[in-house]
Write a structure and sequence with these properties.
The chain is α/β, with parallel strands linked by helices and 266 residues long. The protein is 42% helix and 22% strand. The protein starts with 11 loop residues before the first helix and ends with a helix.
């Protein structure tokens, strides 16, 4: 039937046009939500100085992957040296940092501490000689032992300098070098954070080493917290709750066991 445009056809053409315009408008509005849903959510950029090839680096990534998955927030992990990480976190160029000490926020007002720590580390004296025994740090002076610490680990340097003369104490550049000296019998003990020691011992270089053991721990336990830029302050409380939940359900320790097995076969 030809389209009617005469006066005799009444208002039919106008009705057809109105129906067409309404249908077109509804169709265009229906497309908008679908388009918006197809746009990917921008991930939260979390920075770390730990490569994913290390024990701590692999474990931390596994923890954060699970934590943010539970939050429904996608993340992107970026690796960078500590000084650059500090600058980029303060400027907001990265959204958060894997671990910092409790007091870090005092000097960095742009950073918000997640109140639930991800884990804790301690300082300790590590030995390879099974015969060595020591009850407390102050007893070192009477032993005649020589020791080392990693350069930049100020607590080891300061505490050991109080009980040992300079000719019995020296520093090394890396954890790996410290362990090599310990295993070679060139020193009696090595002062280091437990996390750094495990990173090295679980690496391929020291895979078959079983003689290194913790002689004693000393000082305060150091809690390591996630930090977020203040623009994500509302997320800090939610992340704290998820980390607490993951500790309670055993996820954090399970991830530790899994990563250790992947790296050592044990």
């Amino acid at each position: 039937m030809p389209f009617c445009i005469s006066q005799a056809c009444g208002n039919h053409p106008r009705r057809h046009l109105q129906h067409f315009l309404i249908a077109a408008l509804l169709a265009s509005l229906a497309v908008v939500p679908a388009r918006l849903r197809s746009e990917p959510i921008k991930p939260l950029v979390m920075a770390t100085n730990q490569p994913d090839t290390t024990y701590e680096g692999k474990w931390q990534r596994r923890v954060y992957d699970e934590a943010f998955k539970r939050l429904g927030v996608p993340i992107e992990v970026t690796l960078m040296p500590t000084p650059r990480m500090t600058a980029m976190a303060d400027s907001g160029a990265v959204d958060g940092q894997f671990v910092r000490v409790f007091a870090y926020a005092d000097a960095h007002p742009e950073q918000v501490r997640v109140e639930e720590p991800i884990y804790q580390v301690v300082f300790g004296l590590w030995v390879s000689n099974p015969a060595l025994k020591l009850a407390r740090l102050g007893d070192l002076a009477a032993t005649g032992w020589t020791g080392i610490y990693r350069r930049g680990v100020e607590q080891c340097q300061n505490d050991l300098s109080e009980v040992l003369p300079g000719d019995r104490l020296s520093s090394v550049a890396t954890t790996e070098l410290g362990l090599q000296m310990l295993l070679a019998g060139r020193v009696d003990f090595y002062c280091e954070l437990d996390g750094a020691i495990l990173n090295a011992l679980y690496s391929p270089e020291f895979k078959n080493v079983t003689s290194v053991r913790l002689l004693l721990t000393y000082g305060e336990t150091i809690a390591l917290h996630p930090y977020l830029h203040r623009k994500h302050a509302e997320l800090a409380g939610r992340l704290a709750a998820v980390l607490k939940e993951m500790k309670a359900d055993g996820s954090l320790e399970r991830f530790r066991r899994e990563v250790k097995y992947e790296m050592t076969g044990q």
